[in-house]
Specification:
six-stranded mixed sheet, 2 domains, Rossmann fold, elongated
């Protein structure tokens, strides 16, 4: 400290003036240099944030079709503003949005106030960012297999699912470069699926079938006592049928083999309104379509009720993608470079199965159905179908993870609100929308 005091005293008493002048002059570039390093670092942060907000805008625009230039501009600006709020450093200008075929380009610049460079007259820095997305174009058939059981009424699950599924339809439909390149189907399921009453005269249905229970009658007494058991049979009235069917007989329950009228086990059992307490409230299966508005309306019309049989959902999603001989307007045949995809969601463990495998009493976990689900999942993937599985809060995590085509295609969420991001991730993957620059 004494040395510093002596140095300062000598400087103060120095009357030549050269040192003080040089020091004063040198302070300007020193402060400017320090300010430049600080402000350039801040500019990099601003550029990174601008780029992230642009990417979000570009993906939103790239995932939409049929927009005018003005609509694209409005939509892009809205997404950008949401991701780059006014509280961020810098004041961005208006976005520039251009589209050239399947490529959408966005750019923007922001005026960033400097912190120290003002000493040399630089009060703002112009920071620019650009991004580009490319729609690669795909031929897709995507079936949404969606749990409509009663538990979906809890915690807003069905409400969030409907919104997320409709967003997925919007994004995935944008993957079509030419009309018809992308088609989407919907399979709501519980313990049943609803094929629609228009098929009531089809020869692949059966109206009388055995239950896993039996009725026993005991007669006589003592040595003459005999007990006779008869398998219980369900008989369904065609006139009151609402369109629901249950599992086929084993081993056709995990197969999409064609129904054969001379083999009763291959037929699909029509279900009445009371078995499993679901009352057939399910919306009917929606065959593959490019009518995006109709598909979204069907999603909105889904009603939750009934118990869980994951196997039947997988089977009918598979049926839609591969066979197509049961329902009209089902899977395309021999489509060139066609990718077939199933997006499967459930929120619970198996509790019912028609043939009573395991301890299926409608209120407890039914492990026997998991065995059937595992078999059908293996067969589906063996057919070259890409499978995404989503576990919402409850369900057999190991089973659903193994059903997915890869671990990265399995999602498990603990709240319904997380579904939105999950379906966005799946939709972006399917649409092949990529940040290309």
């Amino acid at each position: 400290m004494r040395r510093f005091q002596n140095l300062f005293r000598r400087l103060w008493n120095d009357r030549s003036g050269n040192f003080a002048a040089i020091l004063a002059i040198s302070m300007v570039p020193i402060v400017a240099a320090v300010g430049a390093s600080v402000d350039i670092s801040r500019a990099y942060i601003v550029e990174s944030r601008l780029k992230a907000a642009l990417d979000a805008s570009a993906l939103a625009i790239g995932g939409s079709t049929g927009l005018s230039a003005a609509q694209m501009q409005t939509m892009a600006q809205s997404y950008f503003s949401a991701n780059y709020p006014a509280s961020k450093i810098g004041v961005p200008g208006t976005l520039s949005v251009t589209q050239n075929g399947n490529v959408v380009s966005l750019s923007v610049s922001a005026d960033m106030p400097t912190s120290l460079m003002g000493v040399v007259g630089i009060n703002t820095l112009k920071v620019a960012a650009t991004t580009e997305v490319t729609r690669m174009g795909k031929k897709l058939e995507v079936v949404l297999v969606l749990d409509n059981t009663g538990s979906m009424n809890s915690d807003g699950r069905m409400t969030v699912l409907k919104s997320a599924a409709k967003d997925l339809i919007t994004t995935v439909s944008s993957a079509a470069v030419s009309a018809g390149d992308v088609r989407i189907a919907i399979v709501p399921f519980t313990t049943d699926v609803n094929v629609g009453t228009s098929y009531k005269n089809s020869n692949w249905l059966k109206w009388s079938w055995e239950l896993p229970t039996e009725t026993c009658v005991t007669t006589g007494s003592g040595k003459n006592k005999t007990t006779t058991c008869t398998q219980d049979v369900r008989t369904v009235s065609k006139s009151s049928w609402k369109g629901c069917v249950v599992d086929r007989d084993q081993n056709y329950d995990v197969s999409i083999a064609d129904p054969v009228t001379i083999d009763n086990a291959t037929l699909f059992p029509a279900n009445d309104n009371n078995l499993y307490n679901n009352n057939c409230t399910l919306r009917p299966i929606v065959p593959f379509s490019t009518d995006w508005t109709m598909l979204k309306n069907e999603i909105d019309a889904m009603v939750a009720g009934g118990a869980t049989n994951t196997t039947i959902g997988f089977v009918w999603g598979w049926q839609m993608l591969i066979n197509g001989k049961v329902l009209s307007n089902a899977a395309a045949k021999d489509a060139e470079k066609l990718e077939k995809v199933m997006v499967y969601l459930t929120d619970g463990d198996n509790t019912y199965y028609r043939q009573g495998i395991g301890s299926c009493n409608g209120s407890s976990y039914c492990a026997g159905v998991d065995v059937r689900t595992a078999l059908v999942c293996s067969a589906i993937k063996g057919d070259g179908i890409t499978v995404y599985t989503v576990r919402l809060i409850n369900g057999n995590a190991t089973l659903l993870r193994n059903c997915a085509s890869s671990p990265s295609m399995y999602y498990s969420v603990n709240t319904a609100s997380e579904l939105t991001d999950v379906f966005k991730s799946i939709a972006q993957s399917l649409s092949n929308l990529r940040i290309s620059k």
